[in-house]
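Recall the central idea of this unit: under ordinary conditions, the amino acid sequence of a chain determines the structure it adopts. In this exercise we apply that idea directly, starting from the sequence alone.
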Amino acid sequence: MVWLNGERLELTGPDGSVPWMLQLDDAEHPVAVVERIVSGLVGPPMLVHSTSWRRDGSAVILSFVVVIAPAQAEPMDTAPIRRADLARSGATRAPASIGFTQVLEHGLRHLAWLAQDDAVVAERLPDGWHRALSDYVPEPFRSLPT
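Accordingly, the structure predicted from this sequence is:
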């Protein structure tokens, strides 16, 4: 779960900043499961967004960014989010490995782009979020001057 601590994005959860791994049945909808779990732990999230997917053998791994309010993060240990290089691949093959920090970086870049391009996402994120995410928007996707 990600939250805005003043002007700084931080990562939190019941186990601090450790990523969660969930195994779902084929019939379960991943977004609904993530929203249900977060709601049960800290209350309804502000935003649940699937940012990427990849395969690991026969499993499909989905990555999510879950945005919560500051009051929801207070009772949990948190850690500042550090920037990371993205996982790089060849033109026709996936990266050999993808680290957690790279997944988080990708998710926040995607969220930053959506905060500018998707009215629903933009509405759900308070103004402070837009400032905090502004450095995550890749240059080619930044708004052009009008």
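The mean pLDDT is 86.
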